[in-house]
Automatic annotation (TrEMBL):
The lineage of its organism: Eukaryota, Metazoa, Ecdysozoa, Arthropoda, Hexapoda. Its main location: cytoplasm. Keywords: Cytoplasm, Nucleus, Protein transport, Transport. GO terms for biological process: mRNA transport; nucleocytoplasmic transport; protein transport. Residues 20-135 form the NTF2 domain. PANTHER family: NUCLEAR TRANSPORT FACTOR 2 (PTHR12612). One of its GO terms (cellular component) is nucleus. Pfam families: NTF2. This is NTF2-related export protein. It is found in: Cytoplasm; Nucleus.
Length: 136
């Protein structure tokens, strides 16, 4: 009986992570492609970003890094979210998101990319606490 309750709780967390991640990632790439000057709003104050080998910490430094990245169009081909059940982030739901897709920078051919990020609830909004984006 206890096992059934745990399984149900896990299923609910997976479902919540799946729904929240799809909504969040859609919003994230809208900002990345069209409203990049607001992208730092989607990160926690002390977030860490590794963008294609360049690491920065803090939302202001993240915003500064993105000022130097050419504008692009992203297409998501795959997205998976896993809830992080033993959260050390003081968040009711934290989840790891894996994204794969393709990106096209102005005047360049489409290139594959992968992104992994940890997302946490922060004041009733989801935000990225760490992020790793890589062109492949």
């Amino acid at each position: 009986m206890a096992s059934a309750g745990i399984d149900q709780t896990l299923r609910e967390k997976h479902s919540e992570a799946f729904k929240a991640s799809h909504t969040f990632i859609k919003d994230y790439y809208y900002h990345m492609d069209k409203l990049r000057h607001y992208i730092a709003r989607l990160y926690t104050d002390d977030a860490v970003l590794i963008w294609n080998g360049h690491g920065v910490k803090g939302k202001q430094k993240i915003q500064d890094l993105f000022r130097h990245v050419p504008f692009a169009e992203h297409k998501i081909l795959s997205l998976d979210a896993q809830p992080y059940m033993e959260s050390s982030f003081q968040s009711p739901l934290s989840f790891m998101v894996q994204i794969a897709g393709k990106v096209q920078y102005k005047g360049k051919p489409w290139t594959a990319f992968q992104q992994s990020c940890m997302i946490v609830a922060d004041c009733a909004k989801y935000k990225i606490v760490w992020d790793c984006y890589r062109l492949v």
